[in-house]
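Dear Dr. V.,

Thank you for agreeing to look over these. As mentioned in my earlier message, I'm a first-year student in the group and I'm still getting used to reading structure tokens, so any feedback on how I've presented them would be very welcome. I ran two proteins. I've put each sequence directly above its structure. The first is here:
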Amino acid sequence: MLATAHPILIFLLAALTVGGLLWSVFQPRLDGGSRASDRLGAVINGPSVAVSGALKDRARKKSVDDVLQEMAEQEAGINGKKKPSLKMRIRQAGLNWSRRTFFLVGLTAGSISFAVATAFFGITQIPAAGFGVAAMLLFPNFVVNRRRKKRLERFITELPDAIDVIVRGVKSGLPLSDCLKAIATDAGEPVRSEFKAIVDDHSMGMTLADAAARLPERVPVPEATFFAIVIAIQSRSGGSLSEALGNLSKVVRERKKMKNKIQAMSGEAKAGASIIAALPFFVAGSLAVIAPEYISLLFDHLIGNIIIAVSAFWMLMGVLVMRAMINFDF
């Protein structure tokens, strides 16, 4: 029995010995292979995470680029027109006029100009009618454009303070819509009415980005476009709204300082243009006092009236040219 079991035991011992030797030789390689596999998996998965983050950043950048392109196209569509419609200009001026009121104001100004030209200056009816038509066309547009310019300037002045209110509200945890409501209630005009329009559009179902995108249409200034771009980018790609609006507030204030500096530097040219424009009227008034019979020829004869009309026209053209030369587009 032992004789038959002895070869089996020898075989088992030999198998165990050989197996132990093989395990001792190949075990480090097997462990290294598993570690290599783990490392390879980490290498493979690591770039996938990096690539995923890069793709997210690329998608976010693409979203921002899309927003900027849309806003640029919208601004180009607004600025591409020669000038806004009459209704829009009246709206931007903050006047409650209708088209009928606008034309009635022009008709009244033309009638008064015609009456003053014929009654006080003794001008004949045909040149006086020319003055009346000119007043009818120019006076209401002058009033609307001047009110519009002043209102846009007030908006630019008040906008940084409104943005600072939004920044403080967002940092304290208030939603953006509540901050806009606070501005629509407590801010000064015209910021209050314009932000109230944004709040009203949002309450009617529009998103804040779409409601803010309509602001440059009502207030065609770069600062309003900047604000709409910041809101649109934050709504699409996220990010710190308070930081973006804080930077926008600084940019708007610096633009205002630069504009004031440019106006101060161009003050000398404006003063010279004003003196040149007022000089013909000063000379005509002086001649009317010193030699009234000499200057009266322009008012008593048809040729003199024509000379006055032509001179006034070219004087107006010169004033407009000088105005275009000294007004810097900033």
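The second protein is here, in the same arrangement:
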Amino acid sequence: MRSKFDPQKHNRRSIRIPGYDYSQPGAYFVTIVTYQRECLFGNVIDGEMRLNENGKIVDHAWHDLPNHYPNLELGTYIIMPNHFHGIIILNDTVGAGLRPAPTKPQKRHGLPEIVRALKSFSARRINERLKSPGTPIWQRNYYDHIIQNDREWNNIHLYIESNPLNWAADEENPIHHAQ
């Protein structure tokens, strides 16, 4: 069963709002696609994503982000064979959540910097593993959506969770791009 969040309707182009402060508190849905849609992170088998070593590197980089960005919480995510979906929550207070409050004011980091960090941390480690320094792993841009309310949150959460089950019909699945 497909969730209400439709990848055909919500295409991969950025819809960033001009003048919007992407470091302000809120929840953001992001999609990052591999360079040339190459399947680098594992396979979907029987509706379940099975990460390979590269996928495990992306998983580690995702979970490591809050260690670098104290105003960040991680929401639902999925690593697919050639793309990543995740919910990034930026808190109002730096150091909110389980981490102790900082002793001095710290900069709030924005969504573009956090996505760049995920891409660069994972790409560097994957290239080290493959002994291929500088090889592109991710496409240059990414898709983002500001989550406006609980209904959107729930739809996106379901979309992320159901992604492996819908892999056969996913627009990022290479079978749809074969010549």
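From my reading of the second output: The domain at 26-167 is CATH 3.30.70.1290 (Alpha-Beta Plaits). The beta strands are 26-33, 42-45, 48-51, 72-79, 83-90, 143-147. Does that match how you would interpret it?

Kind regards,
E.
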